[in-house]
Amino acid sequence: MAGQTCSAPALAALLSAGDRTGNATAAAEYICSKLEAAALTSVDITTAVDTTYLLFSAYMVFAMQLGFAMLCAGSVRAKNTMNIMLTNVLDAAAGGLFYYLFGFAFAFGSPSNGFIGRYFFALKSIPSPGFDYSYFLFQWAFAIAAAGITSGSIAERTQFVAYLIYSSFLTGFVYPVVSHWFWSPDGWAAANRDPSASLLFRSGVIDFAGSGVVHMVGGIAGFWGALIEGPRIGRFDHNGRPFALRGHSATLVVLGSFMLWFGWYGFNPGSFITIVKSYGPIGSPIHGQWSAVGRAAVTTTLAGCSAALTTLFGKRLQTGHWNVFDVCNGLLGGFAAITAGCAVVDPWAAIICGFVAAWVLIGCNKLAERFHYDDPLEAAQLHGGCGAWGVLFAALFAKEEFVNEAYPGRPGRPHGLLMGGGGRLLAAHVIQILVICGWVSATMGALFYGLRKMDLLRISAEDELAGLDVTRHGGSAYVYDENSGGNGGDDGGFIMKGSKSTNRV
């Protein structure tokens, strides 16, 4: 039968022959073989489409590294530009090796216990029926995003070796353990646990794309780094009054923010992992994962837009200025907050999420100034504070229908408190916030404290005042000449010229 072509004449020839019983059997075998071949082809096509979708999502999340680099470069002073750019490159490079060697195994090595994975070190046994290379690439892009968040908190005063150590430790161990808890089917608090395993408060933690797993981890790690290092020289005067050390390029900040906005469409919708999946009647154009992917992109957009506008007017009332730096940070705070619930909330709820996230960021920044805490990119406040709000938001507004679509197989699962789902999901999410704070504080706080004790954390005051580019990286990224403008006038400008370097190890 395999040599026959699937056509009406071929089937008619089988049915019109003399032996009706034998012909019926032959016809049945013929039809079944063609249907089986079509089914296998359909599986291959579905796998190819889903893999392509996941790979392109991974590429978009990785492109966020460019956004981080531009945002960081614009948010620091010109004398530290090369330093912060290099740290962003090394977050990706060191993170790639350590996530390959250890991180992916700790996060998703299965079968394992609820705390940490035990298989797939250096991608051994990959590809496997559960994981392919595309899944590793996607998860690696998330891991280095967490490391990139932390680098912003300790910018402009940190020794280069400290960046290498913390980035490797964060991507190779600290972050993977957290992602195992909440995203691995073996994780003790995961919402997608194996059907035979019980769920935390019968719901598990619905942190769909990582407000807690990625943003809180990176933000809390940055908080401890900045706290242990202390503020930059000149950030507060002798009386404790804050003095703004503004970044040198609003252009780079806006460019980086738009790059991050673009990448978030891979970060949040891409976390569905697959796209060819039906939720309803076959042939329905709207009851499928393809529609849920689009809804996640819409909720992401609305949360960011709401947060940006709220920050714009909120800071205008506070300072009397329309400040692009603040608006860009507000935008990103909205994105960080919606990340947990992007797949399980209605678009109208995303607007509330962004509105509250803006005020959380403003409030965290006020607290930071009051307690003399210095974070050049507001990374701890933005990712830690807004990420924590996003975790709570998902527990309040998760819709039952969307929860059952994103996490099938558990009928009667609790959903958002304000959507009539009871308080179990909220209880699980409070536990998530507490354990992430505790774990990251115990690991990254101890690491930064140890680096300080070994004199490997902060640069000298002399080097900090001169700038890291000149003292550690061979010269300035560019030199600002107050006596010569780009057109030969005396208004000052950026010009390309050599500069003496004072290299230190």
From TrEMBL:
<dbReference type="GO" id="GO:0005886">
    <property type="term" value="C:plasma membrane"/>
</dbReference>
<feature type="transmembrane region" description="Helical">
    <location>
        <begin position="203"/>
        <end position="228"/>
    </location>
</feature>
<feature type="transmembrane region" description="Helical">
    <location>
        <begin position="97"/>
        <end position="121"/>
    </location>
</feature>
<keyword id="KW-0472">Membrane</keyword>
<feature type="transmembrane region" description="Helical">
    <location>
        <begin position="426"/>
        <end position="451"/>
    </location>
</feature>
<dbReference type="InterPro" id="IPR024041">
    <property type="entry name" value="NH4_transpt_AmtB-like_dom"/>
</dbReference>
<feature type="transmembrane region" description="Helical">
    <location>
        <begin position="249"/>
        <end position="267"/>
    </location>
</feature>
<dbReference type="InterPro" id="IPR029020">
    <property type="entry name" value="Ammonium/urea_transptr"/>
</dbReference>
<dbReference type="GO" id="GO:0008519">
    <property type="term" value="F:ammonium channel activity"/>
</dbReference>
<dbReference type="GO" id="GO:0097272">
    <property type="term" value="P:ammonium homeostasis"/>
</dbReference>
<feature type="transmembrane region" description="Helical">
    <location>
        <begin position="161"/>
        <end position="183"/>
    </location>
</feature>
<feature type="transmembrane region" description="Helical">
    <location>
        <begin position="133"/>
        <end position="154"/>
    </location>
</feature>
<comment type="similarity">
    <text>Belongs to the ammonia transporter channel (TC 1.A.11.2) family.</text>
</comment>
<feature type="domain" description="Ammonium transporter AmtB-like">
    <location>
        <begin position="53"/>
        <end position="478"/>
    </location>
</feature>
<keyword id="KW-0924">Ammonia transport</keyword>
<dbReference type="InterPro" id="IPR018047">
    <property type="entry name" value="Ammonium_transpt_CS"/>
</dbReference>
<keyword id="KW-0812">Transmembrane</keyword>
<dbReference type="Pfam" id="PF00909">
    <property type="entry name" value="Ammonium_transp"/>
</dbReference>
<feature type="transmembrane region" description="Helical">
    <location>
        <begin position="348"/>
        <end position="368"/>
    </location>
</feature>
<keyword id="KW-1133">Transmembrane helix</keyword>
<protein>
    <recommendedName>
        <fullName>Ammonium transporter</fullName>
    </recommendedName>
</protein>
<keyword id="KW-0813">Transport</keyword>
<feature type="transmembrane region" description="Helical">
    <location>
        <begin position="52"/>
        <end position="76"/>
    </location>
</feature>
<dbReference type="InterPro" id="IPR001905">
    <property type="entry name" value="Ammonium_transpt"/>
</dbReference>
